[in-house]
TrEMBL record:
Species: Lysobacter silvisoli
Known catalytic reactions: a 2'-deoxyribonucleoside 5'-diphosphate + [thioredoxin]-disulfide + H2O = a ribonucleoside 5'-diphosphate + [thioredoxin]-dithiol
Enzyme class: oxidoreductase
Protein name: ribonucleoside-diphosphate reductase
Location of the TSCPD domain: 51-163
Amino acid sequence: MAVKIEKKIKGYSVVTPEDKAKESAKAEVAARKVEELPSADVIQMHERIERPEILVGSTYKIKSPLFEHALYVTINDIVLNAGTEHELRRPFEIFINSKNMDHFQWIVALTRIMSAVFRKGGDVTFLVDEMKAVFDPRGGYFKAGGVYMPSLVAELGAIVEDHLKSIGLLHDPEMSDAQRALIAEKRRAYEDRSKKNSDVSHAVAESSAAGAAETIEVTGEGVSFPPSATLCHKCSAKALVIMDGCATCLNCGYSKCG
């Protein structure tokens, strides 16, 4: 079959079998992606979904030194596609209750805005970073476990983060075996050094309470760090100690000396 060429030929290329194989592979990948898309009968989170009569929820307690009374944060979830392989649990609404009514207005505004974002659907995990980046001009505080909170809103963001992790929307970054081994080695080295200092102190002044060394104890809630430890800017835990003249974190393994 003859083909009439009406334009001037400026160049040409020969289609090889390898080129045909590449085009075929691209077509297969595109078809596979189309097959993996959720089918039309899968319900996704959007603002037109009506609130069911019963929602599954969790309540968290905040005891902050900034408030005389505790705050109770309740996050309710909606279950989509229940009983199917596409079952999803997504946050639907949030409430904050307390005996302290001094900040009632901004608490109500915050919960309504967050609930609206939850019902909108899509990626709601950005709320965590936005809230945890809020700093109180009067200064933050340390919560139980030695974790620094720059503000009350930041602690609310930490609660939302914990909740999203519990329902599978967020995941902790995997720590490599080498990093775990490094942290364990740092803790052992600090504990051994503390024991040696303790023995020397007892030999010099057996009756002196100041000679007692700081040790790392494993409790039912995890690892507790020495009272003299300072705040680690990387993991926000009060676990930064001086080892061999270098600031080292006993929680995440961060070292100022590398």
